[in-house]
Specification:
16% strand; globular
Length: 153
């Protein structure tokens, strides 16, 4: 009998809590708010460096992700994962993983929302991190189409 903790896909570990915790416990990759291009009608702020990514982009991504998890909208959840995770998972697989570890995943979602409410989000250029427990954090990366979930460690 196959081990249910292993994926049927070769070379892909089926992490019981890993992907479900990502899906349930943390952040959506909606694109950051579009920036107005610099034009004569919209000049850059005097002396300010143009921001490459709005500081609230990861926060918006996380909030949208949490909302999509609560709606069980796993298509949106899947789109919020970074490219390597999207390559390994499907929306239906995320839904299956969630139903398998629903209770612990909901707990992680609640902890992640609480951490976000406490302004624990740390942004450093193309990366962001939301600590959710001791030695545990949700990590985001900025990709071409917005902030995406890269890992829950």
């Amino acid at each position: 009998m196959p081990d249910p903790s292993q994926s049927s896909t070769p070379n892909v570990r089926r992490p019981d809590a890993y992907i479900a915790a990502i899906v349930i416990g943390v952040a959506l990759g909606c694109s950051a708010a579009p920036q107005k291009p610099e034009t004569a009608a919209n000049p850059p702020t005097q002396g300010a460096k143009p921001a490459t990514h709005p500081a609230d982009g990861p926060r918006e991504a996380l909030t949208s992700f949490f909302d999509s998890v609560e709606r069980k909208d796993f298509e949106t959840c899947w789109r919020s994962l970074d490219s390597p995770l999207r390559a390994r998972y499907t929306p239906s697989r995320l839904g299956e993983d969630f139903s398998t570890v629903k209770g612990p995943a909901e707990d992680k979602l609640a902890r992640a929302r609480a951490a976000l409410a406490k302004d624990a989000l740390k942004i450093d250029g193309e990366r962001a991190e939301l600590p959710i427990a001791q030695d545990r954090a949700l990590r985001l990366v900025h990709e071409a189409d917005g902030w995406k979930i890269a890992a829950l460690e």
